[in-house]
Amino acid sequence: MKKKFDLIEEYGVVIYDESDDFDPGQEEATQTDEGGFRIRTNEEIFTDEYMQDYARKMDNQIAREKRLQRFISVGVIVAAIMFIGLISYINFRAIP
Fold this sequence. Notes:
- The protein is of the alpha+beta class.
- Helix content is 51%, strand content 16%.
- It is built from 2 helices and 4 strands; from the N terminus they run ββββαα.
- The strands form 2 sheets. Strands 1-2 form a two-stranded antiparallel sheet.
- The model has no long low-confidence stretch (mean pLDDT 78).
């Protein structure tokens, strides 16, 4: 793992800091059959099980958002009807 990063500085202002681009995940190595180390591939990280689990989570989140939007829409409509009814009642209650 790289401990020393390049830092370009001019007049006390940091122009480029190599540590900003460092991703610790790139250093993650796995053991091979030969006893060496290698970086995991995207196919190993994004397995079918992972993708199905992610799709299930996203479907649940989408369903929750739709349900929340429906409740908000109904609430706004009911509030508008009640407000108009209240204003109408206040203005027209004195008419015989």
